[in-house]
Amino acid sequence: MPANHFHFILRLFLAAVLAAFIGLERESHGRPAGLRTHILVAVGACLVMLLSFYGFPAWPNRDPARLAAQVISGIGFLGAGTILREGASIKGLTTAASLWVVAGIGLAIGAGFYPSALAATLIAVVALFFLEKLEKRFISPRAVSLAITMVDRPGQLGEVCSVIGRYGFSIRAIELDQDEEDTLATANLQVERRGPARPEQLIEELRHIQGVRRLHWR
What we know:
Elements: H1 3-28, H2 35-54, H3 65-80, E1 84-86, E2 89-91, H4 93-111, H5 114-138, E3 143-151, H6 156-166, E4 169-178, E5 184-193, H7 199-207, E6 212-217
Antiparallel strand pairs: 1-2, 3-5, 3-6, 4-5
């Protein structure tokens, strides 16, 4: 096997290793595109870039960027498959973005831009892992999903909505389900923070409302 083929194989393995760091973070959060998906995307992108540079050396007027451009456009279909809508919230945007970054890392490794690929991996890992912790600690989520099970009596839902409004939250959507005996009702609400109050403060107040049996928030 020619020496340059060993160099190509090393590039493929390096792309897999760098993608694994990002894929492990997504895997730890239970995302549909995890470790294996990220590795496959990076290795595939790296292989396409190697093929672009070295696969057609004798062809006149060859353009190495053509195959790479197809990777960038094609990864959009894979990323779109990870984006899901649940009620008023959308999930999967971060995973789709990480797949796009991993494809870029694979292309960079295939082209021999090792420092840039390593820097991109480091930035992506920091953004996914460390910045998420900072967001959870210092930035409260603006949208909150509430599922409140309460006694089905006149004025009960109005009392709940009054507390939500008093804490600076607005109700974006509401669904009401009653049990078979009509003694309890579950209100599923999508609320959005308008004022300075934090969701934890709202939840604590709702728990103390008379007639509220169970409360789940996300």
